Amino acid sequence: MLVWLLKTWEPLREYVGGISAGDSPILLTLRIALASVTSFLAALLLGPVAIGFLRRRFPERVRSASSTLNALHEHKNDTPTMGGIFVVASVFVATIFWGNWENRFVLLSTCVVGSYGVLGVIDDAVKLRTERRGLSVRQKFLGQLAMALFWSVLLYFEQQRQPLGLALVWPVGNVVWPLGLLFIGWSVLLIVATANAVNLTDGMDGLAAGCTVTSAAAYTVLCYLAGHRVLAEYLAIPYIPGSGEMAVVLGALAGAMLGFLWFNAHPADVFLGDAGSLPIGAMLAVAALTIHQELLLPVIGGVFVAETLSVILQVASFRLTGRRIFACSPLHHHFLFRGLPETKIVVRFWIVSAVLAVAGLASLKVR
Description:
Number of strands: 2
Radius of gyration: 20 Å
Strand order of the largest sheet: 1-2
Distance between the termini: 38 Å
């Protein structure tokens, strides 16, 4: 909305041009900050209304394959889930006010968030309305795969216009590997993997929310830098014209998750659900692909990666040897089974996530 006003109202545009610091003709830095604050406040305002509705319609039933885990989480029964709906709504509200809707990256990222949010709502609704534990693995995977393929094709045609085109860039040394049509497959893999990684992390009060705040904040900075010609050249990172606008959406995501954490902190008043975890992961992956910083995603989102690897290793070990590596997977459940309090596990994972986000940003100078 602000961008539209600046482009259509001449006196306002001239005034803003006179006070702008020069980093953006449309006050990008200010709009990122305002998007974060707006989405945070929107989440605080929407939260009680959404939680009240969800508590009446969608109370969570703790049902896992582990009787021990069910017993440990018994006190969480009847806590409403699907809180991701007001996270997504908050991101949209902030982006409407402060985003540039003429920018293709803004349109793409918000559509990705919306589509994966819908899939998450369907999965959560099936889990809560029936005796099933959500959509079947096949249904859920095919749904994610179809959406990831659709958005990856659109991103493929958009990236063809960019300076580095369809290349994979190794962060250290900026070694470039042209992918061509393989970019679509790489993009599908990254989107689906990241969406599921965040989903697996969403198993304790505040865990996924806190880790998302640090990861989204880091990619907000990266998108801003990638869209700034001078700073991108100084840091020797790929310059992607227009990608700075995606930082507004990511800033909104970080603010919305911080607002969600207000209600999701232990003891949680609401759970994120697939309605929130799937769009969050997809959004982070699309941002990384857009600015050619997808190889930093395993660093910045290291907690999500560790949680996913713990599940893969657990399943592989049990099928091959009949033995389990962890007491329970994902990784946060292993520590819970070992007797650590949930709050201590969550805070320690937050600390690791913050350190990894800083490490990812610090790597910009190792070029």
